[in-house]
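Protocol step 4 of 6: structure prediction from sequence.
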Amino acid sequence: MSLAKTMNSLMQTVAAPLLRRPDGELVTKIHPYRRMLSFMMPGRNESVCYYDDYIKVDALLDYIEKAREHFHCDMTHFLVAAASIALHDNPTMNQFIAGKRLYKRNHVAVTFTMKRKKLHKEAKLAAVKMRFDDRHEAFAEICKRINDKIGYERTDSETYTDKELDILTALPRPLLDGAMSLVRWADYNNLLPKSFIDNDGFFTSMVIANLGSIGMAPAFHHLYEYGTCPLFMMVGRIEDRPVVVDGKVVAQKTLPIRWSYDERIDDGLTSKYGMASVRDALENPIEAFGALPQSSAKSHISVA
């Protein structure tokens, strides 16, 4: 073995503990150009690409109407479930940058935003993070888990995030700055504990904000520098959009989606396949979410 190979092997052995993270595995087979991207563009918002997509929703609206005869669901439930499908089916879409290195996330997690009180202007905004370990989890079960999470967020109980924020915001500004710098340093060097990462909604595969639930159009959203989220899905209200069908212009009920995508995690082809997976799931709900249950107790929890 040459001296160079011996030194390289020794360095890898010494550095190995600092390359491990509780939420991902280091991607070692990577093109040199892509490895350099994190040094040329260290921040997510200088690496972000924006995409528009439009979903035909006639079949989905019909599916929602029928599903509500058995259990409560709305558009956000379908967006979260479609995101889970896309992330499972396109693993490189579920990669992230930390410490200027590329990691493959070892689980699928989706964070969605909601009001702590439905359609209440003064209500606090909550970020609800959920894991999806089973690619083929029944849609009714996904809805139940989402509704349970929403129900808990809308109680008077203090959540983990509430307690964390109460402690941090009680600090004087210099100490708060120091605390956040320490968290960022620990994240950069892979020293954050698993319990911290698991409970923080910004260490996630994707964030979804359904502005359509409050009648708004989708915005182009930034990516958060804090955490490890490389994807943001902004969803607007359903609208009639002119499309050409058989040579004629017709009004098509359409759900607009705007994506923010960290280009450092993989190439444009991955973003194309990932967004197509979400679109296919929403446009073909029977194939994506399966047959509806015969009977189920109704719930009346809404995400807005």
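Step 5 (inspection) to follow. The first strand starts at residue 24 and ends at 26.
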